[in-house]
Amino acid sequence: MSTPSADLETVARVSGRIRGNVERVIEGKSDVVFSTLVVLLAEGHLLIEDVPGVGKTQLAKALARSIDCTVRRIQFTPDLLPSDVTGVSVFNQNTREFEFRPGGVFANIVVGDEINRASPKTQSALLECMEERQVTVDTKTYQLESPFLVIATQNPIEMEGTYVLPEAQRDRFMARVSIGYPPTAAEMAMITAHAGANPLDDLEPVTDAAEIRKLVGIVSQVHVSEPVQRYAVGIVTATRASSELSLGASPRATLHLVRAAKAAAALQGRDFVLPDDISALALPVLTHRLLLSAEAALGGRQVADVLRSLLGAVPVPSA
Questions:
Q1: What's the pLDDT tens digit per position in 92-147?
Q2: Which of 45, 239, 299, 310 could, after both became Cys, cross-link 150 (CB 3.0–4.6 A)?
Q3: CA-CA distance, 292 to 290, in Å (whole number)?
């Protein structure tokens, strides 16, 4: 069943407004903004990794402000507790009953700033939230509202005071992007634009939670043919068989890759996924989940290099 063209026009119109809004703050990085929208419409979560000062938190805040829905920011620090993230039950002396006080994760968009500065135990508090969109505290389960998107920023693990994200935590993130330094022209424009005030201060919402839920529904109807599905599975299977990788991609990674490709196709006005959509998203969706073997690491190989080699070896379907 094909997606009606009117629905695809709605995706283009609303996503165009969001992109325009975000790019007022993050200039010269349209590819990063596109990846962020893909993750939003594919109901995933985004990990932004880069050195300090390139706009990781600005990107997360700009997206949050562009959508008229609830937003919470969690500053991850070494002394942050799991209960600060999920919430805690507190005994009320007046009612003689326990009351649940929601943690920072109870919002449509959760901005986790510098997630790898918290302990692995606190990082793991996000596992259930991100996968099942619910929180369990003292045997009672609380549902999280849709849309629910975690945008986490992290500094490279070589920096002082950082912890490596556990494999299970990394696997919950649909994609990892790196902003990088801006082009010279964009950095010059930034000096002028940011000199008087922060552009975030003037950012107004251009859509709301209800409309995002509608777009998510449209994206879910995008068609993925069996050859394209087989291509996605072939790429993921190749990571598991590679001698240069000690940890390949999980079945969850396959699902994330296909869902992200459906969102990318819809954003480009198509109601079907092309093999090019899969291959274009393979690096941001898979790289952060893979671990090099000891031999490959000693040989100076990078995960991205290995994945590119695997992509070149997997046969691309003609349709």
A1: 888 888 888 999 999 988 988 888 888 888 888 888 899 899 998 888 899 999 89
A2: 45
A3: 7
Q: CA nearest 200: which of 12, 73, 307?
A: 73
Q: Token pair 């010059």 is at which residue?
A: 188
Between CA 106 and CA 145 the distance in angstroms is: 8
| Residues 116, 166: Cα–Cα separation, whole Å | 10
From CA 199, how far away is CA 144, in angstroms rounded?
30
What are 26-79's pLDDT values in tens digits?
877 888 899 999 999 999 999 988 777 767 778 888 888 898 888 888 989 889
Which residues, at least 6 apart from 183, have a Cβ–Cβ distance to it below 8 Å? 28
Domains and CATH numbers, the chain: 17-207 (3.40.50.300), 222-319 (1.10.8.80)
Q: Which amino acid is at 86?
A: T
* Torsion angles phi and psi, residue 290, rounded to 5: -95, 150
Give the C-alpha separation, 27 to 20, whole Å.
10
Q: HEC profile for the chain?
A: CCCCHHHHHHHHHHHHHHHHHHCCCCCCCHHHHHHHHHHHHCCCCEEEECCCCCCHHHHHHHHHHHEECCEEEEECCCCCCHHHHHEEEEEECCCCEEEEEECCCCCCEEEEECHHHCCHHHHHHHHHHHHHCEEEECCEEEECCCCCEEEEEECCCCCCCCCCCCHHHHHHCCEEECCCCCCHHHHHHHHHHHHHCCHHHHCCCCEEHHHHHHHHHHHHCCECCHHHHHHHHHHHHHHHHCCCEEECCCHHHHHHHHHHHHHHHHHCCCCECCHHHHHHHHHHHHHHHCEECHHHHHCCCCHHHHHHHHHHHCCCCCC
